[in-house]
Design a protein that fits this description.
6 helices; 7 strands
Length: 203
């Protein structure tokens, strides 16, 4: 499966962590937990199933598609993940442009050697459902941003027949239905943002 996350370490970090244990003072003697080895077959299964097979775990790419905003200079994925933040409150008035939205979405397409995809393997399996509220040049409504073209036909078949699936320009952004979807986005956010105040929300 793609889009999985796992602990990541910067070069040299693991060595520093292991070396740090050597300076700790241990008190007492550990108890014997059992007289014989207790088998945990699940651990062996997980170990076997997660062997890095280069043939099936090639780093995905967006067909070497250039970024809409030009070259992107970013720290490694490990640093981005550790320093991420969550915005939970907006003024409910500020808008963004369609170009800004497409630039943000474009950076979610997997590209080899680009954070955070330098920490992942396999085909991407997550596409983005967007609740658009205040994007200049884009009507309010429900949209899908397709990150894996192979999923498009299955998504169309699995969703409501009344969805229009109108493509927005040349990017893989599709309008499903026009209208005020702030109520739906609030429900999908488990009322964490009340009322929905961001220009758009993805799920």
């Amino acid at each position: 499966a793609g889009d999985e996350l796992a602990p990541v370490w910067l070069p040299g970090e693991m060595d520093d962590i292991i070396e740090g244990f050597s300076s700790l003072d241990f008190i007492g003697e550990p108890n014997t937990l059992s007289e014989t080895h207790y088998p945990w077959p699940t651990i062996d299964e997980v170990s076997s199933d997660t062997v890095n097979d280069e043939a099936c775990c090639a780093i995905p790419s967006a067909a070497e598609k250039p970024f809409l905003s030009g070259p992107v200079l970013a720290p490694p994925g490990a640093s981005l993940i550790r320093n991420r933040r969550s915005a939970q409150a907006y003024d409910g008035e500020t808008t963004i442009t369609l170009n800004t939205l497409l630039t943000i979405l474009d950076k979610t397409l997997p590209r080899a050697g680009t954070a955070p995809f330098d920490t992942l393997t396999g085909e991407t399996s997550i596409n983005l459902l967007l609740f658009v509220h205040r994007v200049e040049g884009l009507e309010c409504g429900l949209y899908f941003y397709i990150r894996n073209d192979d999923d498009l036909a299955d998504l169309k078949a699995a969703t409501r027949k009344e969805f229009s699936w109108e493509k927005v320009g040349s990017e893989p952004l599709y309008l499903l239905a026009k209208g005020d979807v702030r109520g739906e986005s609030k429900f999908m956010s488990a009322t964490r943002i009340s009322p929905p105040t961001a220009p758009f929300l993805w799920r």
